[in-house]
Amino acid sequence: MTTNEIIKILEEISLLLELKGENPFKARSYLVAARSLETLEEDLPDLVRENRLDSVRGIGEALSKKIGELVLTGRLAYYENLKASIPPGHLEMLKIPGLGPKKINALYDRLGIETVGELEYACHENHLTELPGFGRKTQDKILDGIKQILRYRERRLYAEVIGEAEGLLNLLKGWKDVMEVRLGGSLRRGYETVKDIDLLAATRDPGSLGDSFAALPVVESIIAKGETKISVALESGINCDLRLVTPEEFPYALHHFTGSREHNTAMRGRAKHRGLKMNEYGLFRDDQNILCRNEEELFQALGLAYIPPELRENMGEIEAAEKGTLPRLIEERDIRGLFHVHTQASDGADSLETLARHAREKGFSYIGISDHSRSAFYAGGLSVEAIRVQHDRIDELNARDSSFRIFKGIESDILPDGRLDYDDEVLARFDFVIAAVHSQFGMPEANMTRRIVAALSNPFTTILAHPTGRLLLAREAYRLNIQEVIDVAAAEGKVLELNINPQRLDLDWRNCILAKRKGIKIVLGPDIHNREAFDYLPLGVKIARKGWIEPDDCINTLSREEAIRFLEQRRIRCPGA
Predict the structure, then answer these.
(1) What's the mean pLDDT in 26-37?
(2) Is 528 helix (H, G, I), strand (E, B) or coil?
(3) 0.85 surpassed by pTM
């Protein structure tokens, strides 16, 4: 191990000790030792072999032994154990401007934040605004810093990419050389995370179109440029591929470059079984291309109903298309109201009145307010008195406007033993109760499953929120038996949430398919903490479609009167309540 490598390890040990909240003098001693090694004139291995290292300024007996271990073995057990004791995301968080070890420690101690992704989510939920030493300005500055350090990560959230992709798409639509242009790849299929942007354009002049695309101001560099494909890196840090085909090739290429790979393989197998050859250039019988003017005709030529892009994962869509049993997938226009809305009473940014007015302006017939329960102290969870005040205000607003309904709900923490926050008398006051895990994510699978099953078995539970607790690209789902959870939800008649926050998208679309087969109702929960979260709906619908969800599967499609009846039928009242 070189002296420079040892210096870097000493510097990192100093940082790690700061992150652990150790004595600052202890942390500084490693920096002093590192600076001494930088100016060392003698050979470090010689000093170690001759036991003279402790004669160097700032290096005592303990540090001498540690440096000697590094020199002689290339490893240091103390360093490895120290590094293992600290969430690896904390070192990455140090790259965020204005976020030092003390603040990272505070975030870990108060909110349990271990990764940059968890920190980003906490900022979006306004959890930093009330923390000592933080506030809204610091929260906004941290969010800006996060955007910078995430710029070059390999995968991005769908929501981070789709706006830029659609901007490029709309730009290309206006060019004279472009006869048709569409998104392809995982973006078109509605995958929750994506690696790059895929665009497909039909043109008679690929050379000119490729040159114009490569010269766009948003293009930072050209990765590769050929006659049929231009690959560029955009200023945002994401890569984009533009594929150029003739108008005649476009339907076949659109299908091929939409994917998925598994779907395409199954489709080529179907074509082969019928004596055909299928690729991105056409559908051939011998050397004769079967003319298809669009994807609908391409599917029809293979004896199939049109398969929406979201379903193209080879998960039964081809068989359903053959039998004519594809679902009538949910659309944005089907949505009548939203549940899972937070106000200023807990950790939301807007007042009850503002959110209700905004929902009406968006064309919704109702919203379900669900602030945090009292155990969520970090999020301003509601006391029993605060609940009474909120319910009185909701009654006033509902009395003013009979065309719009505000439902009284709560996002109740599921306690470690599976009980809900509040006693039965308080829970009976709500129109609906959302049960959610917000703590002790590291429980063993059997314990976490029992915890959630107990909450689902509680008669006051209406909805299970973000069932697996995942944060995309930031935190893995907690360990649980999701099949058992789905089975119990079906048996108990509970609703499962597809949380449509772009960082969650939980229930996973694959598990939405399982839930649908069990007859479970799904709710699209935007988890609104500010008005901008109303705009999560298009993504939520996209993911619901990917989970084979139809309008009748989703309670957001109920009319106001139907929603009132639905919740009333499931509401539990205590004697005298």
Answers:
(1) 86
(2) strand
(3) no
Q: Count the Cβ atoms, other than its own, within 10 Å of residue 173.
A: 12
Q: What is the dihedral angle through the alpha carbons of 259, 260, 263, 264, rounded to the nearest 10 degrees?
A: 40
User: Residue-wise over 474-499: b if at least 16 C-beta within 10 A, else e?
Assistant: bbebbbbbbebbbbbbbeeebbbbbb
Local structure of residue 154 (DSSP, 8 states): S
Q: Cβ neighbours of residue 423 under 8 Å, at least 6 residues apart?
A: none
Tokens standing for residue 398: 């509902």
The lowest-confidence range among 4-8, 162-166, 192-196 is 4-8
Mean per-residue pLDDT over the chain, rounded: 92
For residue 39, the model assigns a pLDDT of: 75
Token code pair at residue 408: 């009284």
- Which tokens hold the place of 459? 């008669």
pLDDT of residue 379: 76
The DSSP string of 373-432 is BTT-GGGTPBPHHHHHHHHHHHHHHHHH-TTSEEEEEEEEEB-TTSPBSS-HHHHTTSSE
Residue 257's alpha-carbon distances to 116, 188, 312, 548, in angstroms, are 32, 10, 12, 22
Q: How far apart are CA 483 and CA 490, in angstroms?
A: 11
In sequence order, which residues have a C-beta less than 8 Å from that of residue 44 and are 6 or more positions away? 3, 6, 37, 53, 67, 71
* Integer Rg of the chain from CA: 28
pLDDT digits (tens, 9 = 90+) for 537-558: 999 999 999 999 999 999 999 9
Q: How far apart are CA 316 and CA 510, in angstroms?
A: 12
Q: How far is the C-alpha of 242 from the C-alpha of 222, rounded, in Å?
A: 12
Domains of the chain: 1-86 (1.10.150.110), 95-150 (1.10.150.20), 157-247 (3.30.460.10), 258-326 (3.30.210.10), 332-570 (3.20.20.140)
- Report which residue type is found at 64: S
Rounded to whole angstroms, the Cα distance separating 505 from 500 reads: 5
Q: What is the pLDDT of residues 267-321, one digit of tens each?
A: 999 999 999 999 999 999 998 999 999 999 999 999 999 999 999 999 999 999 9
Query: At residue 576, does pLDDT exceed 70?
Result: no
**Which residues, including other chains, have CB under 8 Å from residue 552's CB and lie 6 or more apart?**
none
Highest mean pLDDT among 25-29, 40-44, 82-86, 171-175: 171-175
pLDDT of 559 higher than 70: yes
Question: 37: which 2 tokens?
Answer: 């090694």
Q: How far apart, in whole angstroms, are the C-alpha atoms of residue 363 and residue 510?
A: 30
> Tens digit of pLDDT for each residue in 88-131?
788 888 878 778 888 898 898 889 898 888 999 998 888 888 88
Looking at residue 89, its pLDDT comes to 85
In sequence order, which ranges of 95-234 are alpha helices (DSSP H)? 101-111, 116-124, 136-149, 158-173, 185-189, 206-214
Residue closest to 414 by CA, chosen among 461, 379, 459:
461
Rounded to the nearest 5 degrees, what angle is found at the Cα of 93, between the Cα atoms of 87 and 98?
140
Nearest to 465 by CA among 502, 408, 413, 429: 413
Give the distance from CA 387 to its chain's centroid.
30
DSSP state of 471: B
